[in-house]
Amino acid sequence: MREFKDCVEEIEVFDVNRSGLQFTWNQKPRGTDGKLKKIDRIMANLACTDGFVGAHAIFQLYRISDHSPAILTIPTSYKFTPRPFKFYNILVQNSQFKRTVKESWKYGREWFSYVQSRK
């Protein structure tokens, strides 16, 4: 068990918000007096829960297995956060920088004009 906890800490994941059955494994799913344990999990890292706000795990009633079926619901809207533009000043020191930029702008304007003429 200690190895599992160490691994979870190392890879920085945690349980997703959940509902349904508290215990996900039943030693005797069709009998009585069975041992109940929580051994099944749905885990995610911070980037996942930030990107999929409202993700939720549902642990359902035992059916044909001694494990509870787990369903992960993910909302349809995805929270997209664009990365900020980064420019490295060291590029300006390259002797080919100005020429490359001028050529790129020249080509870019022509391509933009072509696309606009096709609309």
From TrEMBL:
InterPro entries: Endo/exonu/phosph_ase_sf (IPR036691). Keywords: Nucleotidyltransferase, RNA-directed DNA polymerase, Transferase. GO terms for molecular function: RNA-directed DNA polymerase activity. Coiled coil: none annotated. It comes from the Eukaryota. Transmembrane segments: none annotated. PANTHER family: BNAC02G09200D PROTEIN, ENDONUCLEASE_EXONUCLEASE_PHOSPHATASE DOMAIN-CONTAINING PROTEIN. This is RNA-directed DNA polymerase, eukaryota, Reverse transcriptase zinc-binding domain protein. The lineage of its organism: Eukaryota, Viridiplantae, Streptophyta, Embryophyta, Tracheophyta.
